[in-house]
Design a protein that fits this description.
The structure is a single chain. The chain is built from 24 helices and 16 strands. It is of the alpha/beta class. Among the domains are: 270 residues, 3-Layer(aba) Sandwich (Rossmann fold); 133 residues, P-loop containing nucleotide triphosphate hydrolases (Rossmann fold, 3-Layer(aba) Sandwich), CATH 3.40.50. Strand 4, helix 12 and strand 5 form a beta-alpha-beta unit. Helix 4 crosses helix 16, helix 9 packs parallel to helix 10 and helix 13 crosses helix 15. Bound molecules: adenosine monophosphate (AMP). It catalyses: ATP + H2O = ADP + phosphate + H(+). It is an enzyme of class 3 (hydrolase). It comes from Folsomia candida (Springtail). This is RNA helicase.
């Protein structure tokens, strides 16, 4: 066998493998080849890699936190987050930060408004002002009452723009459907000449803003919510039309025995009721003297014998002026009926509700046998009352002359810090600021008596009234002061609401009332009928901070000087106090707090909670009336 023959295939094949393995090895060697890198360069590469990893980690963390905790980011965190974005200019960072802060503020504001809305709803819901009978029968009047009165043709022919111009000129704000035009002269309102003459004699020549718009509204038969500062002439807005309506009724079908009243005016205090009654008596007499049919008003209030009212009722009564307590009593005993009553006025309506007469008014409503024209008047009318009232009125028109609860701009308001022990002596000095007549208000009956005694000792001609004195003494005191026989009247808030004393030069608040509304009412006794008055208020550390804040903001609004100790007083919620049109508290009207911090609402709620089923608090609250 020749060994030099070509090798067997198998060997060949093995050789082939061997060749392949060799080339694979050399390939591997090529791939594993690492070129030499100097140590310095290797270190630099490592550092770059580490830096990139760190940046990626941070970016991921940022996205997470901005999504889940966006709202809770503080300004500082915002600033840090922004600083990380190195490629944004400082100006852009600032704009972005500002936007973030604004968005946060807006959402907090929205939260506050939502909370307030809830509170308001809870207040408004349970106090729908409807009679029990109406509620029970589900009666809802849809259309206002129609009267025979229409505005003069030449005013009807004028366009809406003219009406808007007049309203703007006299700062009259109106709300509602189909508002009658404002009328600038009494004779254009079609009142009898004799009535206009009688008003002229009292110095009432041209209608005041509330009368310019209010009288056409009431004469047209529309329901009204009238908001005007005290002394603006709102009494005539409901007194003149009821005289006209009563005359019309009397001409159609004279009132005979025990008929009437056709109009009912409810007032929160005896003094206010008496004052309104006296205006009615005077105007009815004027009409009668000139040959018009006799109109009989009557006064129903505590402190006056029921027999007096009954005498008039027996003859047939056209207009009744009443305080709620006596009215309820007479209705209860069937001494009067409201079968033919078609005109209801609630003067100082917010006071009536505040004093706890809400239930009584609801009951009074149930005595009406047909639709009535309803008018609510007040100097202060927080939203709670507006909501409350709207449910009982038919397509009401709201007339607002100045902000509800705003102080009269005709009063110079001076606020002085006087320590409690120095007040009585300083009072004498304060009395020198103006000539008489001067009104002094104090919260407590005891203080009124002390001041009165002190002034008498010092030879000042002073009288005093408060709820602890009997009606005769109260009436005599008011009369002596009104007729200028006495120079100074010292009183509790019983004299602060709606009372009209001519030419009061100076109102002194011996103490700051707990409620800013009372302050507005008190100082409204001066600066009436376009004249300028002065109000001095003593405050000190004993006053609640909340009412002082309200006072501070009221002074700012009325462009008065704010004393240093008030100016430095800061509210916790200062940033929410003025949300555009929505200023201060929508419940009580105070400008120094929001409804969420309203001390009055809080007090009422805790009182309600503690006196469920009892009427004690009503008795306490109304003791002075
Ligand atoms: P009142 O706001 O209704 O309590 O009215 C306050 C005072 O203003 C009263 O003394 C009225 O005699 C007086 N008064 C009412 N209307 C006018 C008017 N149009 N012009 C001048 N004084 C008026």
């Amino acid at each position: 066998m020749d060994h030099r023959k070509s090798p067997p295939v198998k060997r060949y094949r093995r050789a082939e493998h061997a060749e392949k393995d060799e080339s694979a090895l050399s390939d591997l060697e090529d791939r594993n080849y690492v070129p030499y890198v100097p140590v310095r360069e290797r270190k630099r590469d490592k550092l770059t890699k580490l830096g990139n990893k760190l940046y990626k980690d941070r970016a991921a963390k940022n996205v997470e936190s901005s999504e889940s905790e966006k709202e809770e980011l503080t300004d500082e965190e915002d600033a840090q987050a922004m600083a990380r974005r190195e490629n944004i200019s400082l100006l852009d960072q600032h704009t972005e930060l500002k936007k973030l802060a604004e968005a946060r503020k807006e959402s907090a504001m929205e939260k506050q408004l939502k909370e307030e809305e809830k509170i308001l709803e809870s207040v408004a819901e349970k106090t729908a002002l409807m009679g029990v009978a109406e509620l029970a029968k589900g009666i809802q009047y849809e259309e206002p009452i129609r009267t025979s009165w229409t505005p003069p043709k030449h005013i009807m022919d004028k366009d809406q723009e003219r009406h808007e111009r007049v309203r703007k000129k006299y700062c009259i704000l109106v709300e509602g459907e189909g508002i009658p035009p404002p009328i600038k002269h009494f004779d254009e309102m079609k009142f009898p000449k004799v009535l206009i003459k009688s008003l002229n004699k009292k110095g009432i020549v041209k209608p005041s803003p509330i009368q310019i718009q209010g009288l056409p509204v009431v004469l047209s038969g529309r329901d009204l919510i009238g908001i005007a500062f005290t002394g603006s002439g709102k009494t005539l807005v409901f007194v003149l039309p009821i005289l006209m309506f009563s005359l019309e009724q009397e001409y159609k079908l004279p009132f005979t025995r025990e008929e009437g009243p056709y109009g009912l005016i409810i007032c929160p205090s005896r003094e206010l009721a008496k004052q309104t009654y006296e205006i009615l008596v005077l105007l009815c007499q004027t009409l009668k003297d000139e040959g018009f049919p006799e109109l009989r008003p009557c006064l129903a209030m505590g402190g006056v014998a029921v027999t007096e009212a009954l005498d008039t009722i027996k003859k047939g009564v056209h207009i009744m002026v009443a305080t709620p307590g006596r009215l309820m009593d007479m209705l209860d005993k069937k001494m009067i009926r409201l079968d033919v009553c078609r005109y209801l006025v609630m003067d100082e309506a917010d006071r009536l509700i505040d004093l706890g007469f809400e239930e009584d008014i609801r009951t009074v409503f149930s005595y009406f046998k047909a639709q009535r024209q309803t008018l609510l008047f007040s100097a202060t009318m927080p939203k709670k009352i507006q909501n409350f009232a709207k449910s009982a009125l038919v397509k009401p028109i709201t007339i607002n002359v100045g902000r509800a609860g705003a102080a009269s701009m005709n009063v110079i308001q001076e606020v002085e810090y006087v320590k409690s022990e120095a007040k009585i002596v300083y009072l004498l000095e304060c009395l020198q600021k103006t000539p008489p007549p001067v009104l002094i208000f104090a919260e407590k009956k005891q203080d009124v008596d002390n001041i009165h005694e002190y002034l008498l000792l010092k030879g000042v001609e002073a009288v005093a009234i408060h709820g602890g004195k009997d009606q005769e003494e109260r009436s005599k005191g008011v009369e002596a002061f009104r007729s200028a026989k006495k120079d100074v009247l010292v009183a509790t808030d019983v004299a602060s609401k709606g009372l009209d004393f001519p030419n009061i030069q100076h109102v002194i608040n011996y103490d700051m009332p707990d409620d800013i509304e009372n302050y507005v009412h008190r100082i409204g006794r001066t600066g009436r009928s376009g004249k300028t008055g002065l109000a001095t208020t003593f405050i000190n550390k004993g006053n609640e901070e909340s009412v002082l804040l309200d006072l501070k903001h009221l002074l700012i609004e009325a462009k008065q000087q704010v004393p240093y100790f008030l100016a430095t007083l800061q509210s916790e919620n200062e940033k929410y106090l003025d949300l555009g049109d929505d200023k201060g508290c929508s419940y009580c009207g105070g400008l120094g707090h929001r409804i969420t911090d309203c001390p009055k609402l809080e007090a009422i709620r805790s009182k309600e909670a503690s006196s469920i089923g009892r009427r004690d608090y009503l008795a306490n609250n109304t003791a002075d009336y």
